[in-house]
Amino acid sequence: GAERKRKKSGPQKLTFEQIGGQDNAKQELREALDFLIRYEEIQKLGIRPMKGILLTGPPGTGKTLMAKAAAHYTDSVFVASSGSEFVEMYVGVGASRVRELFRDARNRAAKENKNSAIIFIDEIDVIGGKREGGQQREYDQTLNQLLTEMDGIYSSESPRILLIAATNRKEMLDSALTRPGRFDRHIEVDLPDKKGRKHILELHGKNKPLSSTVNLDKIAEESYGFSGAQLESVMNEAAIYTMREDLKEIEQRHLSMSIDKVMMGERTDRESSE
Ligand code: ATP
To answer: Which atom of ligand 1 is nearest to the CA of 199?
Structure first.
């Protein structure tokens, strides 16, 4: 069942070059990943293995992309999952899914002849929320299982396992998860600045016919506060406007209209959910 649900798994070819902006986050992540690659030196120096990296930041900023690029960079198998997949009515099901996730990663690495596996858990706060207050009690077993699995990661084992988790709410996480030896590397994946936004627009405009009059610098300026996911939408919507007008090339006004549309869309989403 879990295998089928994990749609994001499978061969990953995504590289850091395909992620726009986020220069600092990419740099920090690459440095952390070198620990996974240089495991022999790590062992010799008696450094404890790095088991978990936590990516924090608002939705749609590229945290999932980062995890995929990490798998590519380290030549690891990539197994993805989300916190909400572990939430079940019946006690114990979540915990056994966690076990299954790790087993899955080890099996796939063996099958694909890889020395390492990266397990990505999006929305980690769903299972790793603070345990005080009693409300989260039913998830305790799931979280405990995750902690047990993390404690069982050794740098000498093959395949080497690295967990990457993402959350929009770092302050919500139980300290058992963030203490040394667990998710002790935190990398902030923030909203892109203007230069980052331009880079993201360029990446998503690559396979689209942009008119020579298009000024992405200006679009980057107008899209202040947009996430990578929203910028991807801007490019896509602009292409749709172009098609509607029976034109062959995307023009500046299509992009401007798309910015308004994406902004409006967000606003109505928020209103309807209140
Ligand atoms: P969430 O917290 O909602 O899971 P996320 O941070 O994991 O979001 P992604 O799933 O990585 O975000 O990004 C969603 C989509 O937005 C990507 O598939 C991509 O098209 C686009 N995108 C987001 N950030 C970037 C970026 N930095 N560069 C290029 N594309 C991006």
So the answer is: 28
Tell me how far apart the alpha carbons of residues 227 and 222 are, in angstroms, rounded to a whole number: 13
ipTM computed for the complex? 0.96
* Cβ of 21 below 6 Å from ligand 1: yes
Q: Is the CB of 63 under 6 A from ligand 1?
A: yes
The model's pTM:
0.89
Using a 10 angstrom Cβ sphere, with 0-12 exposed, 13-18 middle and 19 or more buried, the burial of residue 196 is buried
Ligand 1 atom having least distance to the Cα of 196: 27
185 pairs with which residues across the strands?
A: 53
Contact 186/204 with Cβ under 8 angstroms? no
Residues with Cβ within 8 Å of residue 132, at least 6 apart in sequence:
none
Closest CA to ligand 1's atom 30 = 228
